[in-house]
Every structure is written in C-alpha cells, then in structure tokens.
Prior knowledge:
Number of domains: 5
Strand order of the largest sheet: 12-13-11-14-15-10-16
Helix content: 25-40%
Bound molecules: adenosine-5'-diphosphate, zinc ion
Strand content: 15-25%
CATH topology of the largest domain: Rossmann fold
Largest sheet: 7 strands, parallel
Shape: globular
Distance between the termini: 18 Å
Amino acid sequence: MIARYAGVIVDGKVEALDRVFSYRIPAALADRIRPGVRVRVPFGKGDHEKAGYVVTLSDRTDVPDEKIKDLLGVKDLTGDAAEIRVALAAWMRGEYGCTMSQALKVCLPPAKAAQVRIQRILHLAADRDQAKALLAEAERKKHHAKARLIAALIEDPSVPQSAVTGRLQITRPTIDALVRDGVIRVEEREITGPAQPETERVKITLNPDQQHIADEIWQGYTHGDSRPSLIYGITGSGKTEIYLELMERVIAQGKQVILLIPEISLTYQTLMRFYRRLGHRVSYVHSRLTPAEKAEQFARAADGEIDVMIGPRSALFTPFAKLGCIIVDEEHDDAYQSDQTPRYHAVETAFHLGELTGSLVIAGSATPSIDRYDRAMKGELRLFSLTRRAHEGALLPDVTVCDMREEMKNKNRSIFSAPLWEAIEGCLERHEQMMLFLNRRGFSGFVSCRSCGTPLTCPHCDISLTAHRDGRLRCHYCGYTRILPKQCPVCGSEYLAGFGMGTEKAEELVKQAFPGIRTLRMDADTTSGKDGHSQILRAFGAGEADVLIGTQMIVKGHDFPAVTLVGILMADLSLYSADYRASEKTFGLLTQAAGRAGRADLPGQVIIQTYNPEHYAIQCAALQDYPAFYEQEIAYRQLMHYPPCGYLMNVQFASPDERTAERAADDCAAFLKRQPETSAYKMAVIGPGSPHVSKIKDQYYRHLIVKAEDKTALAALREAILRREAGPRVWLTCEIR
Ligand code: ADP
Ligand code: ZN
Ligand code: ZN
C-alpha cells in the first residue's frame, strides 16, 4: 500500500503534542515520507508555513477532500541532539502506538548539569606479590568486598572508581580502608582531552576474517552506505574485537559511541575489556542506578566528558552531541524488547536513530533473530559471517544428542542419560568444570493431586504453583507463596505430588548421584540478593565448584575457560510454548549453551538430552548451524504468515473484572470486523480469546490477534483502536510484530 496521507504533529506547545493533523502526501515526496521525518506544512487560517514531524501514515482520512492540504516539503534535521531525539520520539509514536509525551519521556530522559568533573582513578600502590598476599588474607578473613577490589587491581593496576563501586559493588569505606593501609592510591583528575588507555596493553591483531569485516564495514560507512550491518559470528569468533576496532576509528573522528549489551552480560570483566582498550572516557549505565545517578551519567555524555556509553536498552538514549556509532551486541536478546509503554524494540530503535544521525550501526549475534537475518538476506542489512573461533586452537565442541525415550526403554529413569553420566564422571576425574542447564527453576514443575488430578494454582494468577525445596509453593508470576497443603483442596486426598523438575531438584539429584561433587546454582532464586549474580559467577570462575547448575542465566555470554562439559537436561522445555518463536528461542538457548563448552585450550563436550531428537531446532543447534536453522524456520513462518512473513498485532485487554475485560475484547473484535481495512487488505481477526496465562496479579486478560500482510494498514488500524474509548477499568495495549 502507498500511503496517501500523513499524520503530522506541528511544532508548538507541549500540550498540543498529540494533536495529529492530516496532510496529503504529494507524489513527488511519497518515498521520503515516514514516521519521524521532519516536514514543512501549511498551518492555520493564513496557511503559514510551520515545521512538524510525521507520526502516522494512512491511505484514508476523515478530513473532507476539499479541506485537506498538501505537505510542502521535507525539512532536513539540523543535527541538533535535542531535535534528533524529538524526531526519534515522533517515529516511536508512529511505530509503537504510544502518545508523544510517553515517547518523549523515553527519548529525552531528564538530564541535569554535571557536577562532578573530576574522575577518581584507583591505582594499586603495593607491588604484585604484596597484593597477592593481601588478597589471600582478605579471603581468609572473608572480607569479600576487599578481596574483590584487590583481585581486580591485580588484574588491572588502575581502574576508575566508578567501575568498582558499580559492577563490583564496592563501597567507599572499603576503598578508604585500603587507602589507609597503603594498598591503593587514589588519583583525582579532571576529564579533558581524548581517551588515553591507562595501562599499556598489547592490542590483539585481528585475524584476516575479522580484519576483512572491519574494513568492509568501515568502507561502506565512509562511502555512504547507510545500511546497518549484521555480524553473524559463532560464540568466541571475535565479534567484540571487531567492535573495538571500529569504535576506535569512530572516536578518532571526534564522534561518540553507544554500545548496547544485555544487562546480564554487563559484567565487570566485560567492562574492563572496554576500559583497557578505550581508556577511561568510557562509562556505563545499568538498571540499578538511581534516576539521579543515571541523569549524572547522561549529563557527562552531554557535556562531552565521555566518548562511549555501554549499557542495556536505555543507554540508547544517551544524549551525545555527535553520535557516530551504535553497536548492539547479542541482538537476539529478548531484553531489547521494552515491556513498558512505549513498547519499543531497542534494535529497531537503534537502526532508526542511526539513520537520523548518520551513524555507523552494527548488530551482532551468534544466533541472530530470524527477523533481522531475514532482512539481511533481502539486502536491507549488510551481512557478515564469522564461522571459526578466533582463539587459536579453540575448536567447536563435540555435541551428542541423546534420545531420552531410548534411555527410558533401557530402564534408565534417572535424569542423566548414560552418556551424560559417563561424561560427568570423566570431567570430575580430570578436575575440569561443567555446566548443567535446565530452563526451569524451583524444585518441581507443578504440584497436583494424584487422586483427582487437580493442580494447585495461584489464587491471583491462572498458573500452577511451583514447589520449592523449603516446602513452599511459589507463583513465578506474582511471587505468591504458601506452604504445601496436607490435603487436596478439592477431594481431600493426601496424595499430592510434584511433576517435572526445576534447577533446585536437579542440584539435589546431582549431589545424590555424585557424592562429594561441589555445586553452585544460578537462577532467579539464588540471584535475588544485591550481587548474587556476580558472586556466583566469581566463585565458579575461581574454581570453587565442579558444576554450575542453572537456568538460561548461565548460558548468556559468560566465559569460563575451565568448562569442558555442558549438559542440557531437558532441551524440549522451551519448544512447546504457545509462542510462534518457540523454535527460535530453543535453537538460540541450545546453541548459546553449547557455545559455553571448551572456549580455551581444552576440548569441549556437549550433551543435549531430549525427547525430540529429530526436531530441526535441536538438530541444527547440535551442528551449530544457524543458516540451516534459518532455512527451515523461515519456511515455517512463510507457511503460517508469521513475522517476518507477515505482521501480527496483539491487542490485549486487562481488567480486575473478568466480564469487563471480556466485553471490551468482544467490542473491539466487532469494531475491527466492521472496518473496511480488515477485508480490503486481507487481514484476519483471530479471537478474542484467553491468552496462555489469562490472569496475572488479579488482572484478567483477554486478547485478539490481527494478522496482516501490510504493516502500514495495521498501524492505521491500531490508531483507530487506540482512538476509541477503551472504557473504564480496561487497560489496553496494542503491539505490532
Ligand atoms: P565474541 O565476541 O564473538 O564471542 P570475542 O571477541 O570475545 O568473541 O573473542 C573470543 C576470544 O578470542 C577472546 O578471548 C578474545 O580475546 C580472543 N580473540 C579474539 N580475536 C582474536 C585474535 N584476532 N587473535 C587472538 N585472539 C583473539
Ligand atoms: Zn484431589
Ligand atoms: Zn500469582
């Protein structure tokens, strides 16, 4: 469909921001008009020329033909940082269907004047041997914070204070105490001039594959190819080194860089890798900063004190004056999808911001999202592949797929297949480390009555409770807990039992099966403390356990050179969720998990236990073959008209009153079926129905799905839905995928 009309918000008072005026798009401008584009329009009685932003496109309008005016032209952005952010908000409004003020809240986060212009750098004052002795002493006395800081300084003799107080959670008193003891020295310096790496580092020489990709990307960028690049590179293939190389080139041009990484991968080690190469004009944000701390970081960026901002999706809105490069690592990660209004996707938003600012944009992953890989196949993104590990001698692990049905036939009822059992024994004998991955926490999956079959469910959510080892049942949606009842609430039977298995149970079974084995467990239950997550990673990295058992938290980009075995206990858990992306998620998890084995000089072994050994997601993960997976998956999406081979709009209604949610959904479905668009553009309205979990935290949910081939028409329909009164006590969200 070619859009004939543009909805424009005209520059003016803030209160008028969401008044959208319709204009006709002259044919000559048709291919330049998109949401976020700045335009010139005739406005008011005298048709005075004003500037505005396009926020929506449609092919019909309620304005009578004789009254509608033509757009006058496109007005280029001047490049002013604030103006670009307003343009980004206008795009966001059109793309995600929120209000302008909601979009501006995200795109123009509050900044305050920077107060601290002094950076504090910590230097190791003792020599290395002394420091090592002090470290041993601190560990013996269980002075954990002190030990963490000394260990960090042994690795890097000078680090910015903000890095250790942030990611390492070290407080001022700890620092002050070490200063008094003469172990560290604090240098205060004013931040001026370009980045200077603090300590001399041997810069890794890129291998020919890396060098080629870096050069190609740079060539394209400097010769006006404005397409973003997608680097598909298997785990450990050296993507990060390519990012570093290109970041250096951009900084050398006097421009700034935003690097997005999922929060869970933003560890101290990751951060130090960037500090070492790029110096201390690097900063970072994360979700535990207070609003004031975050504003402070953004103010430093606005004032030109730093060149690089690293962080999760919100780092994208860092107000750099001359943004030159945006890199999104692990671009497939679900954390890039915002779960609050506006429900923006950070990768798509990064692409648009890149376009507005003329920045170099790079996304990278070992398991790219099907959506973006598909766009790369169509030439909308530049595609680069790295299929070998960068580290010399590091080989891909040896993967075995184990059919658990066969194990059952052979009377093996334990959670370990024979090959996994053998591999664990071998690993223990050789004193190497292993990871066991199970994508469910808790003790057992759900608890139900063996006599009448009634499951025990949460009173606030439509979901069964999960049993935990302490004897309590928990709801993983709202946190409700209760003790295990003695009798079935329905029939009074005493036979209540758990089915399935979570990480907690797996840990217990591992301990029973291999007496003396040292275990660590990482899941939402063990990492809820302030720094539980980094504590566990540190302990495992220091060799304090033989096995790390955990949920998907353990598969995300952590590098443990001593891990030679990865066991995937139930590979099928994520395969049959009610999501069209179930295979994509399963493939991603398995591939990333397998990628954890054998990263350094020791060969790796991976064992995947499954009831579906023939499924292509499992087969392709075992072969670490993303392109093969993509071929199969895209054929399935094509067949089903699922994204990216069609669009889905998910309209969700929530209310504390079940009838109200139901009525609102029925109403909306009837409205949609009356719309000319639904028949004219081959749209299908599916539902309304109950989502997979239809009650969460005492809110009842109903949803309906509109499938369409044309995104613009779908967006116009969304405008119409949002314009309708949602009705009292109904919460409405409308998301297009
Ligand atoms: P990715 O980001 O793709 O997972 P990294 O950039 O982290 O990969 O590289 C994986 C490992 O290989 C790291 O330990 C890194 O230091 C090393 N490495 C990367 N590039 C090279 C190179 N050209 N020569 C030697 N080692 C390299
Ligand atoms: Zn019962
Ligand atoms: Zn609940």
